[in-house]
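Rotation project, supervised by the postdoc (A.L.). Task for the rotation student: set up a whole-complex structure prediction and record inputs and outputs verbatim in this book. Inputs entered:
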Amino acid sequence: GAVVSQHPSRVICKSGTSVKIECRSLDFQATTMFWYRQFPKQSLMLMATSNEGSKATYEQGVEKDKFLINHASLTLSTLTVTSAHPEDSSFYICSARKTGVSGTNEKLFFGSGTQLSVL
Amino acid sequence: EDQVTQSPEALRLQEGESSSLNCSYTVSGLRGLFWYRQDPGKGPEFLFTLYSAGEEKEKERLKATLTKKESFLHITAPKPEDSATYLCAVQSYNTDKLIFGTGTRLQVFP
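Outputs recorded:
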C-alpha cells in the first residue's frame, strides 16, 4: 500500500517555541493533504486541508496564524505550531489522498502521527 | 450536518469469539464510507472503502458491509493481534473531508 511518512514521531518543546511537523507521500503524488488532531481516546478532528500550491483551508475554530500549513510540492506538506503552549499538546496526524488512474478508487493514507508535548 | 456514531465504545472478546462493530451515519450524499484500524500512538491504517448500499468487502478475518444508514465491521474468530481501535469515517459529495466516529476499542484476549 501507499506510504505516508510523518516526522518527527515525538517532540517535546518549551512553551513559546515553534515546532514543525513534516508529512511526505513517499510513492505517490498528493495534491491534497489533511491535518488532524487527536486527543486521548477521542476521534480525529480535521484541522485543515492542504492543497499543493495554494493556501490551506482551515476548519472553524482553528487559528490559521497559530497552525501554519505549507504544501510546497506534490509530496510534502508541513504543519508549524507557532508559539506553542501546553494546551497545544496533542497527537497530530497527517494524511494524503491517493486517487486511482481513472479518478476513482480514492484512498486516504495516514502518517504515523506526531505526539507533541509542550512544557 | 454529517455525523458518524460508532458502537460499542469498547468491546472485549475472547479469542475466537466473533462479533460486529457498528457505524451509524447521516450524510448529505454518501461518497464513501471508510474503515480504519488504529494502534496506540500510531496513525490510522486503511482497511476498506464502501461506496454503495449492499456492498461488502473482506480482508482476512474482517468483513465490512454497508446499508443506507449504517455499516458493520464483522470480525470472525478474532485473534489477540486484532486488538486495536477501529475507526469509521464518511465522506460526502459536498466536501472532501472525512468525518470520523469516535471509534470502537477492541480487546481480544487469549
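Student's summary: Residues 16 and 77 of chain B are 4 Å apart (CA to CA).
Supervisor addendum: The first strand of chain B starts at residue 3 and ends at 7.
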